Amino acid sequence: MPLVGIPRNATGLVFGKAIQESIGVWAYVVGTGIHFLCAIAWGVLLAMIWPYFRRGGYEATLAALFYAVVAKG
């Protein structure tokens, strides 16, 4: 799939193919919004668990890499 179709596809995955088709070009806007809301949610969750890793002496990038694997897995 070309990159340009990814936001539209996110709308279909969340709301269904019928909604994706019925809102037309707005599916790109909704899909982009879905992407940013998910990214913000994962970022807030990482910020909430970060103090635990900081006390353990872990480096931020290393902890975030493992967090990303677990969060998306």
Which features does this protein show?
73 residues; mainly alpha; 4 helices
How is the secondary structure organized here?
Layout: H1 6-15, H2 17-22, H3 26-55, H4 60-72
Q: How would you sum up this structure in a few lines?
A:
The protein has 73 residues and is an all-alpha fold. The chain is built from four helices and no strands.
Explain the overall architecture.
The chain has 73 residues and is mostly helical. The protein has one domain. The protein has 4 helices and no strands. The longest helix has 30 residues, at 26-55. It is elongated and about 50 Å long.
Total number of strands: 0
Q: Please, what is the oligomeric state?
A: single chain
- Main pleated sheet: none
Proportion of residues in β-strands: under 5%
Whole-number count of domains: 1
Please state the CA-atom Rg, rounded to the nearest Å: 16 Å
User: If you average the pLDDT, what whole number results?
Assistant: 87
H-E order: HHHH
Helical amount = over 70%
**Amino-to-carboxy terminus distance:** 21 Å
